Amino acid sequence: MKNLNDTIFCSNTTEWLEGKGILPATWELPERAKTQLLELNVGLLAISSPEAAYDPRKKKAEKQQERDPSKTHQDYEGLVILDKVLFDQCELSPKECVAAILHEFGHHVYPDGDHGIACADDYLRGKPWL
User: Fold this and answer.
1) Dihedral sign, Cα of residue 125, residue 128, residue 7, residue 92
2) Contact (Cβ atoms closer than 8 angstroms) between residue 46 and residue 13
């Protein structure tokens, strides 16, 4: 079975998650939940909000060094994008961070607009391991 860390899109995301103590492989999820997340084929990417305004093509050479060269955005069905600044400013506990990330994965499980938001919340609430 693949490791949940395989969902991480680039090395700076790995470093940030590791620094917060929330690498996906440490989430202590049941095997069924791990399998479901891996089957979604959704990548995990953490950015700093100022970076969100930049055209990624302008920073291609710089980002190429950070990104896992074996992965491209086309390798995933979707991406969960985390704003590192927001997470850091909110001073969330590791458990709260994981809950927020799993909520975002829930949007990929239930991708149906406003209904999807409620379902993403339900997806998270139904997980007794949090």
Assistant:
1) positive
2) yes
CA separation for the pair 8, 6 (Å, rounded) = 5
For the stretch 47-82, pLDDT in tens is 887 654 444 454 444 444 455 555 555 567 788 889
Q: List pLDDT tens digits, range 68-126.
A: 555 555 567 788 889 888 888 888 888 888 888 888 888 787 776 666 666 666 666 66
Residue 105 in contact with residue 47, Cβ under 8 Å? no
Helix (H, G, I), strand (E, B) or coil at 67: strand
| Range list of H helices, the chain | 11-20, 31-40, 60-66, 84-90, 94-109, 113-125
Distance in angstroms (rounded) separating the CA atoms of residues 102 and 44:
11
Q: What is residue 1's DSSP assignment?
A: -
CA dist 21 and 33 (Å) reads 20
- Beta carbons within 10 angstroms of residue 52's beta carbon: 11
pTM of the entire structure? 0.72
Residue spans per domain, the chain: 4-125
